[in-house]
Amino acid sequence: MISMNLNYLKVKESYLFADIRKRVEEWQKENPGKKVLRLGIGDVSQPLTPSVIKALHEAVEEQSHAETFHGYMPECGDPVLRKAIADWYRKRNIPVDPEEVFISSGASDELGDLLHLFERSLPAMIPEPAYPAYADANLMDGRKIIFPGTDIENGFQPLVPEEDLTALIYLCSPDNPTGAVCTKECLEKWIAYAIRTKSVILFDAAYESFVYEDNIPRSIYELEGAQECAIEISSLSKTAGFTGTRCGYTVIPMDLQRDGLSLNAMWVRNRTTRTNGVSYILQKGALAVFSEEGQKEVSQLHEVYRRNAQTFMQALDEAGLSYAGGKNSPYIWMKCPCGSGSWETFDILLKQAQIVATPGAGFGESGEGWIRFSMFAKEEDVEEAGRRIIRLRNEKYF
Ligand code: PLP
Fold first, then answer.
1. Which of 48, 176, 329 best tests ligand 1's pocket when mutated (most atoms within 8 Å of CB)?
2. Is 374 in the pocket of ligand 1 (CB under 6 A)?
3. Could you read off the pLDDT of 141-154 as tens digits, one per residue?
4. Residues 364 and 130: beta-carbon distance below 8 Å
5. What is the C-alpha separation between 122 and 139, in angstroms, rounded?
6. How far apart are CA 234 and CA 102, in angstroms?
């Protein structure tokens, strides 16, 4: 009889967004015609930028002529794009070699696939609340998970455990869902811990481009020692609107060795076996993001989301509500008022103000009592949501 991976039974159905959708649909059926403001899901609302679109069109055209046609691409990525990304790091004084950059179809794919490098007996360490895919991917693999907490008083910084353990450590900065950013001091502690325990850090930098403050690291490699203990996983999804287009990149330094093995060499071996790479067309689009023009356009794109965050934070301040994130992040993590639960607050927001947010409980037990707002929504919707929250507060709904 065939043996299945029974670890899948340990993974809960992904109810969160399905539950949200169901509640919103039911409410809309009973209350037709009311405008619902969607600040729940972390998907972008701004289109791809002009230079990306131009590059994509050109690449499609190239594929239609025998002289310029491209078949299979190198599995680890187009060398031109790998070099452009390495140069982009180097411009910020972070020494990354093109051979250390791997082009991917996005951070989610990498976060799941990278687990293949590690023995299943190695536990995963996931500071909670966290992006649910971290725990689910490890549960599917049968890995034990340790959930160190976060320092709420200190802006949700992930707390280094007291006990020394060798683990696969997940750090996400700017964080989804809390919007927290790891300070240099926080990352220094984690790097020291990872080196001491021979652990490996998976640094999820999917939201790095939202860091505006100079003293907050955008890359873990800004810190000494990170090259010896960390893999950085990045994505163009939120940086350049690639959520539906799909392209990302991962850095695995040559200096990262465990058990006498080079993780970079292992990943080359993995990629050349388990993928045939990212499409030529998409990599051309991605390359445009790293051009001078592309970088200017991307920062304009970010201005929209940044303005959204400022508008919404002002509204929460005016309403006297507590929150984290928003400053270097597209997420605002609000404390549910009056001691109410995440879903209770979700219902009040939906029924009394037609605002959709994501209940914090969906990001782990410690997310209960919090709710996440996404600033990727349209500007006019964020402005209106701010006004409605102030009204809710004035009318003492919470
Ligand atoms: N990491 C975090 C923290 C995310 O929030 C997301 C998506 O929302 C991803 C990774 C996945 O990004 P991608 O679209 O590149 O797969």
1. 176
2. no
3. 999 999 998 888 88
4. yes
5. 12
6. 10
Of 250, 247, 245, nearest in space to 236 by CA: 247
- With beta carbons less than 8 A apart as the criterion, state whether 103 and 247 touch: yes
In this structure, are residues 359 and 325 in contact, taking their beta carbons and an 8 Å threshold? no
**CA-derived radius of gyration, the chain:** 22
Pocket test for ligand 1, best of 175, 208, 235 (most atoms within 8 A of CB): 235
Residue 187's pLDDT is 98
Give yes or no for a contact between 106 and 259, defined as CB atoms under 8 angstroms apart.
no
Enumerate the β-bridge partners of residue 125. 146, 169
Q: Sign (positive/negative) of CA torsion 356, 357, 363, 364?
A: negative
Predicted confidence (pLDDT) per residue in 32-73, tens digit: 989 999 999 899 999 999 999 999 999 999 999 999 999 999
| Closest ligand 1 atom number to CA of residue 176 | 3
Q: For ligand 1, say whether the CB of 243 is within 6 Å of any of its atoms.
A: yes
- Does a cis peptide bond (omega within 30 degrees of 0) precede residue 127? no
Question: Residue 144 C-alpha to ligand 1 middle, in angstroms?
Answer: 22
Cα–Cα distances (Å) from 25 to 32, 130, 351, in that order, read 10, 27, 12
Q: In this structure, what DSSP letter does residue 206 have?
A: T
| CA distance linking residue 99 with residue 157, whole number of Å | 32
Q: Coil, strand or helix: which one is 172?
A: strand
Please give the angle made by the CA atoms of 15, 352 and 388, to the nearest 5 degrees. 105
Per-residue pLDDT of 166-225, as tens digits, reads: 999 999 999 999 999 999 999 999 999 999 999 999 999 999 999 999 999 999 999 999
Distance 45 CA to ligand 1 centre (A): 15
Runs of H (alpha helix) within the chain: 15-30, 50-62, 79-90, 107-113, 132-140, 184-197, 237-240, 263-274, 280-289, 292-319, 342-353, 379-394
Q: Is the alpha carbon torsion for 110, 366, 180, 145 positive or negative?
A: negative
Give the pLDDT score at 350: 96
